[in-house]
Amino acid sequence: MSLDELNQLKQQQENQLQALTSRYAQLRAAAARLNASDQAVLEMGPSTEGKSVMVPLTSSLYVPGKIRDPQKLLVELGTGFYAEKSSKDCSAFLQRKLKLVDANSENVTKAIQNTRHNMEQVGIAMQGKMLEIRARSEGRRLQSIGED
Question: Are strands 81-85 and 73-78 parallel, antiparallel or unpaired?
Fold first, then answer.
């Protein structure tokens, strides 16, 4: 490969590494949200019935509310889809989602490691190509000196 091709490959690997790192951060943020949700479910017990809470309408707008039945929770299944579940079922659902997110995080971590390794290999190939170019240039210079 030429030096330009190697440089282009290195740039592609850097872009891929950046995308993978961003994906990993998103997965870790999702895991943190799932853990926080599961912790909130664990805190819901019979003693929380009638307790006052702030119910979010948007990320910055809340209305006061009261917990009517702490054993009936709504869990988001996907974008805009919710299901009523018991605390136990809700916690089990969140744990399954967390395992999936953790498995995806592990796969992304492996991909990050492979991409870094590929970048190192491209860097080594680029250094070799640079040495080759310098050696050829030095050889030509010495050859032209010998001809004079």
Answer: antiparallel
